[in-house]
């Protein structure tokens, strides 16, 4: 009888020559860019809870270590100080690509860097996804609809965006990021997901973030007047962060829908109505101060979420009146204001 002398090729022979066999990855490995930020840190909490290996890459432009500090001792968590404008080598199964400043105050601060982050950052993450065969989800934005001429906004609407205005670095940056995703998908077969996120609020938003909900809440808590820009009749639809994170994970884990999908709460409020809700929750005697509005401010915005309901089985659960108190509690603690002061 002939004796088999040579080792079988491939993994079998390799593991035999090693003292310890290479374990097959049993946990899903997930990269979250921008994971130290507001939305990213809530997403990281959910991923860690469900037992994933989570790698956060963040340059800390607007993110904070405090947001993810509670995971630092966990061996399944890794934090990398990294700017997504630079290439990155890691081995993962999923990429949630959030890295990008989101508040107008932040993204207008260094517009060239903002557009580099969206374009080069997304290119790098798609190159990474292509190399390792990962699925990549882009957090795009309702800002791709610009100052919308259709209301509410459906995913099929192409938008009304000023290409050369002060908001363009963000809006057009995200539009190019979406284009890159679809071109990598069609040309290279990269597995992509695109979420178009509408205004989101909740605990851990930066106190000086500059967005309207965080501004009103900090102002009301500090006893300062609420700054309403323009006539306050412009509208937005506000989504609680837990609903957003559930929507992002539902989209990432869906085998059929790649998007773009609107993820937002259809409850629409004028800024004056929002100010009233903040007054109800924090201090009914708070004053309002009118300020000049910024350029190209969209007049109204409300998501049509038919697609998300139908394909992801997702819809938001938390109303503004339910979500706001949770954010107020967090802001009160971080502003060192102690227990709730009775709103007389
Ligand atoms: P955020 O500013 O709190 O978080 C952004 C994170 O990205 C921060 O941790 C920041 O340090 C990091 N970052 C920025 N530039 C980077 C770079 N070049 N390299 C590495 N990290 C970088 O904002 P957020 O509200 O948490 O937004 C997260 C994502 O969701 C963004 O992509 C934003 O465009 C999108 N989005 C958010 C909203 C919203 O209302 N929160 C709405 C639409 C879209
Ligand atoms: N890239 C990366 N990590 C990887 C693979 C690629 O950051 O693991 C970057 C790469 O440096 C490039 C971009 O992603 O800038 C696009 O990569 P791709 O392979 O599509 O294009 P090419 O490198 O051929 O220009
Ligand atoms: N806004 C306001 N007061 C503030 C900050 C913002 O009235 O202190 C208005 C702003 O003009 C816009 C809306 O609130 O019409 C939402 O602005 P935000 O910066 O939160 O997000 P955007 O949807 O513009 O990205």
TrEMBL record:
Q: Tell me which cofactor or cofactors this protein depends on.
A: NAD(+)
Query: Which part of the chain is the NAD(P)-binding domain?
Result: 31-327
Per the record, the pathway is: Nucleotide-sugar biosynthesis; UDP-alpha-D-xylose biosynthesis; UDP-alpha-D-xylose from UDP-alpha-D-glucuronate: step 1/1
Q: In its keyword annotation, does this UniProt entry include Nucleus? A: no
EC number assigned by the record:
4.1.1.35
Coiled coil residues, start to end: none
State its location(s).
Answer: Golgi apparatus, Golgi stack membrane
- Keywords from the named record: Decarboxylase, Golgi apparatus, Lyase, Membrane, NAD, Signal, Signal-anchor, Transmembrane, Transmembrane helix
What domain of life does the UniProt record list for this protein's source? Eukaryota
**Gene Ontology BP terms:** D-xylose metabolic process; UDP-D-xylose biosynthetic process
Q: Name one GO molecular function term.
A: NAD+ binding
Q: How does it sit in the membrane?
A: Single-pass type II membrane protein
Tell me if Lyase is a UniProt keyword of this record: yes
Q: What does this protein do?
A: Catalyzes the NAD-dependent decarboxylation of UDP-glucuronic acid to UDP-xylose. Necessary for the biosynthesis of the core tetrasaccharide in glycosaminoglycan biosynthesis.
UniProt lists the family membership as follows: Belongs to the NAD(P)-dependent epimerase/dehydratase family. UDP-glucuronic acid decarboxylase subfamily.
The protein's name: UDP-glucuronate decarboxylase
* Species for this entry: Ostreococcus tauri
Included range, full protein: 155 to 498 of 514
């Amino acid at each position: 009888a002939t004796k088999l002398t040579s080792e079988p090729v491939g993994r079998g022979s390799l593991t035999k020559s090693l003292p310890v066999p290479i374990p097959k990855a049993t946990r899903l490995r997930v990269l979250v860019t921008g994971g130290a930020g507001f939305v990213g840190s809530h997403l990281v909490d959910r991923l860690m809870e469900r037992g994933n290996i989570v790698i956060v890459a963040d340059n800390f432009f607007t993110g904070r270590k405090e947001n993810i500090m509670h995971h630092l001792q966990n061996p399944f968590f890794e934090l990398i100080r990294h700017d997504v404008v630079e290439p990155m080598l890691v081995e993962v199964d999923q990429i949630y690509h959030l890295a990008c400043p989101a508040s107008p105050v932040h993204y207008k601060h260094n517009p060239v860097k903002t557009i580099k982050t969206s374009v080069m950052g997304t290119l790098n993450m798609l190159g990474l996804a292509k190399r390792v065969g990962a699925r990549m989800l882009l957090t795009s934005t309702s800002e791709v609809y610009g100052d919308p001429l259709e209301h509410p906004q459906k995913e099929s609407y192409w938008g009304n965006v000023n290409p050369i205005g002060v908001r363009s670095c963000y809006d057009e940056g995200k539009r190019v990021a979406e284009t890159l995703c679809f071109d990598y998908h069609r040309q290279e077969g990269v597995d992509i997901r695109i979420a178009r996120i509408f205004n989101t609020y909740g605990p851990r938003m930066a106190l000086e973030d500059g967005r309207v909900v965080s501004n009103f809440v900090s102002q009301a808590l500090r006893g300062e007047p609420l700054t309403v820009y323009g006539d306050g009749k412009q509208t937005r639809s506000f989504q609680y962060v837990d609903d957003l994170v559930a929507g992002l994970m539902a989209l990432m884990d869906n085998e059929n829908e790649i998007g773009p999908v609107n993820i937002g709460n259809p409850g629409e409020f004028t800024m004056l109505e929002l100010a009233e809700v903040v007054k109800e929750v924090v201090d009914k005697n708070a004053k309002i101060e009118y300020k000049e509005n910024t350029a190209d401010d969209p007049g109204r915005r409300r998501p049509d979420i038919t697609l998300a309901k139908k394909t992801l089985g997702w819809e938001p659960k938390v109303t503004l009146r339910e979500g706001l108190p949770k954010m107020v509690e967090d802001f009160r603690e971080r502003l060192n204001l102690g227990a709730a002061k009775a709103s007389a």
